[in-house]
Amino acid sequence: MKRKSKKVLSWLLLACMFTRVSAVFADEAAGESAALFTAHNTWMMVSTFLVFVMHLGFATLEAGMTRAKNTVNILFKNTLIPAIGILSYALVGFGLMYPGSDFAGKWFGFAGWGIKLPAGGDTMAYNGAFTYWTDFLFQAMFAATAATIVSGAVAERIKLSSFLVFSVLYVTLAYPIVGMWQWGGGWLAAKGFHDFAGSTLVHSVGGWGALVGVIFLGPRLGKYVNGESKPILGHSMPLAVIGTFLLWLGWFGFNGGSVLSAEPGKVSYVLTTTTLAAAAGIVMAMLTSWSLQKKPDLSMVLNGCLAGLVGITAGADIVNIAASVVIGAVGGVLVVISVLLIDRARLDDPVGALSVHLVNGIWGTLAVGLFSKEHSLAIQALGVVVVGAFCVVFALASWMAVRHVMGLRVSEEEELKGLDLGEHGMEAYSGFQFFTTQ
Q: Is residue 20 over pLDDT 60?
């Protein structure tokens, strides 16, 4: 009996030890899982902050590339756009872009109004890498960017109220519907279309809306005289440079956050391809502008940086290092040639938004098919064409409706005096005297 009692006691002790060790390992595993979740969520929030900073970049770039008398107007629009984008995305856009798991392969769906936790209310159960609220904030920052692209292209002659109404329509409906087709699991995703962070779904969407707006508005007074294009210089290249570097900084969150985790290998690779493309865009824009214009143009170089960034955005996660340099370099060449050709076509784009975002958004999307064996050039081109057709039709209807109801352009007197005084009754540089022939 004593031997049996000792055996039973031994087995009980072993069982207790095993239970304790298992509990320790379980606690460690749970701790590691929680720490990993926190790391992923933190990186996504940092990326959100970086994308938010891009709005300051757009504001300073556009202000610097336009005239001093319109600076308040530029800054006002770029302050309102993030607010419009975030609120409209909370009300409608998030539900449109992500209709739910049963939406796969379809053209249209809607998850419902507003933002609310999925059933169960557990933020960690929503996504293994980050919370529901983090997901919303990150995606909302993207939504506002599409309207910001339009702002620069139609600068210095559009009514503030008309621009804001168009922005509400475009950001609330056009952007999330197109995003739904790919990022929401719709028909483009089912066909194998790849747009990692939005060369088409963000930049080209904004570019198509800007193109239609530029055509509807017509050029600024004094831009085209007697068949010749007259340069209308921006008032502050320092502001433009600051804006460009802020945008480049923000792109680390724009592309890096699109990994949707803090996985070190993936994030660091995306940040590397993004940086190389931007650098190549700068160098090739310098060489191209120097060759064609006989002088190295700083504004072209700044747009070359942005062109490289827009171009790599579609394939930053899958193209190889050499391809990222080529994509950025081609973007730098394209942006210079495009700016010159668009100006020759009498389309007045004060900041080069069409060349940066539309032309290079298309190039970057097609480049995925050229430099990645996993994705078809034909499917990439199909996505470009269908998204372009939808955005042009939507923008046409929106601009026409706004023009019919409110009008689009400020009066000639307001344009000559400046939108700061005409639309806002204030000046950005009160007390300073600017000497200009414009």
A: no
